[in-house]
Amino acid sequence: MAAGTYSPGLEGVIAGATNLSEIDIEKSQLVYRGYNVHELAKEGGFEETAYLLLYGELPTRAQLDGFNSQLASERSVPDYVYDVMAKVPKGAHPMDQLKVGVAALAPSDPDYEVGPLDHDANVRKAVRMTAKMGAIAANGWRVAHGQDPIQPDPSLNTAANFLYMLKGEKADDYTVATLNTSLVLYAEHGYNASAFCARVTVSALSDIYSGVVSAIGTLKGMLHGGANEKAMAMLMEIGSPDKAEQYVKDALAQKKKIMGFGHREYKISDSRSGIMGDMGHEIARRKGDTKWTDIADVVERTIKQEKGLFPNVDFPAAYTYYLLDIPIPLYTPIFAVSRITGWCGHIIEQLDNNRLIRPKCIYEGEKLRPYVPVDQR
Ligand SMILES: CC(C)(COP(=O)(O)OP(=O)(O)OC[C@H]1O[C@@H](n2cnc3c(N)ncnc32)[C@H](O)[C@@H]1OP(=O)(O)O)[C@@H](O)C(=O)NCCC(=O)NCCS
């Protein structure tokens, strides 16, 4: 094959194929296995979406009931995982703790010894991780703060269980529904950096858990999932709606990136941000606290005017989660609680038709030169 053209950041490069999701840039539309994410968010829920991504089709009622029972029976995490997580030095970011938790969890999987090319075992591992991710994130936060882990409640779905384990009490229906919808929106997004990273890792015939650990590390970055936490930090730094316009103008003048805006793929809008933003505004209205949404509205308007940029899903996720009283360092771990499904879908897809991912690079270093012994340098 002839050498291709170099594109920094692989922009515009086709790096593979997928059946998982389609990003239609013209329509700013996101589709999971043929279903518009808007419909899945409105009519379905996270568990249906997870089933769709892992098994390829939406579940029948019986399949969904079976899947929910399976998730409920798989949610518990061995105590030793929490013990390991509790030993992580204080102040570690929860995404680093999540990596530790998932890495520690791997050997306890009943299919640990099964090789990476076994499709059925990979699906079973994916379901187990989907079930456990919320517990690892919520209880990881608890143990980092000197609290005991809380056992998941088998009667609760992924969103409700996460909130229950985090807070120690059941959340109200609207809070659960909001988090549930956000999990649908965050579940999958083509060859994004973390999914690609997961594919690269397993393409060497490493295991699905290793692929997920790589992906968690990638998602942490603020140009990717970490943007939701940084966006909230920015809203807090702005502090009030009257300061928002100047803040944005100053930041743009200094060539600073505004977190939660722009996208490599979308050029007009990110369809997920509208749904997320509506939920955030609704919670603000219900709580009678519109300070954050008011600041966000000015930020959004100003960036649009000044730079023609639109919010991606991470911007409204930031104030939505804040209004749900979720600690800011857990915003990106929540993204992972959802994206585990997309990652596993990509990993399984990669391993079902594997070829080592190993691109070329341009060497820009020194030309060949003679070796000089150490004492003569
Ligand atoms: C997502 C992102 C990395 C995509 O970037 P990309 O395709 O590599 O685009 P670039 O960073 O090269 O940006 C292209 C132009 O838009 C500007 N731009 C893009 N996103 C911007 C942002 N969030 N704030 C300010 N300017 C931005 C760049 O400064 C650049 O402007 P210039 O041509 O005048 O120099 C980028 O939009 C970004 O950093 N956003 C903030 C982080 C974020 O929200 N990440 C979550 C993504 S879902």
Please identify the top-level CATH class of the largest domain. Mainly Alpha
Number of E strands: 3
Tell me about the biggest sheet? 3 strands, antiparallel
What's the CATH topology name of the largest domain? Citrate Synthase, domain 1
Measured by DSSP, the beta-strand proportion falls in under 5%
Overall 3D shape: globular
Identify the CATH homologous superfamily of the largest domain: Citrate Synthase, domain 1
**Mean of pLDDT:** 97
* Sequence of secondary-structure elements: EEEHHHHHHHHHHHHHHHH
Fraction of helical residues? 55-70%
Counting structural domains, the number is 2
What is the second-level CATH architecture of the largest domain? Orthogonal Bundle
Continuous helix count = 16
Gap from first CA to last CA = 42 Å
Give a structural overview.
With 377 residues, the protein is an all-alpha fold. The protein folds into two domains: 19-220 and 338-352, Citrate Synthase, domain 1 (Orthogonal Bundle); 227-323, Orthogonal Bundle (Cytochrome p450-Terp, domain 2), CATH 1.10.230.10. Helix content is 57%, strand content 3%. It is built from 16 helices and three strands. The chain has a three-stranded antiparallel beta sheet. Helix 6 packs antiparallel against helix 16 (331-352), helix 7 packs across helix 8 (173-186) and helix 11 (227-238) packs across helix 15 (314-323). The longest helix has 26 residues, at 119-144. It is globular. The structure holds coenzyme A (COA). Residues 9, 223-224, 227, 257-264, 307, 309, 312, 314 line the site of coenzyme A.
